[in-house]
Amino acid sequence: MVSFKCKDIGMDCQFEATAPNVQELDEKIAQHAREAHNIPNLDKEMWIKIHRAEK
Ligand SMILES: [Zn+2]
Q1: Ligand 1 mean position to 49 CA, how many Å?
Q2: Which of 19, 28, 37, 45 is most exposed, with the fewest beta carbons within 10 Å of its own?
Q3: pTM of the model
Q4: Closest-CA residue to 47 (of 29, 34, 20, 35)
């Protein structure tokens, strides 16, 4: 299992997600970014931050 917390990338947000693998976790994060943060497409730098924060 891998997990991600939005606050680990400096967002003022309580979102946490877990998934069986990074690919599914990334999908959950992309969906959360669209719905909660109004970010339809995360750019490359955001993904680098996100992948560092995933564990
Ligand atoms: Zn968030």
Answers
A1: 13
A2: 45
A3: 0.94
A4: 29
